[in-house]
Amino acid sequence: MTDNRRCQRFPVESKVDVYFEQKGIWETQGVNLSETGILFKSKTPLGLYARAVLRLHLPLKDTPFLDVDAASIRSEAQGEWYLTAMEFMELNAQDREVIVNFLKTA
Description:
mainly beta, 6-stranded antiparallel beta barrel
């Protein structure tokens, strides 16, 4: 089987807060992270293409968290959890650099 992903994924266990205008805030747990998106697990599924702001809590000295706009591309049940893949939307160069530098240390 061939892996057709655009960017390499790195394991991450950081907390991810998911902010919705109408639904409030969900606390979730990161599974893996790349330059273009994140996979996290939560107790609630997310609809396809749902938009949210993600607060990525990264263990970095200068940037303890990043807020990024994202859209869901997959949300699948796995046991008692839902694994949700979100693609970053309009990530600015500075935030992308923070993620890339974080991934270099992973």
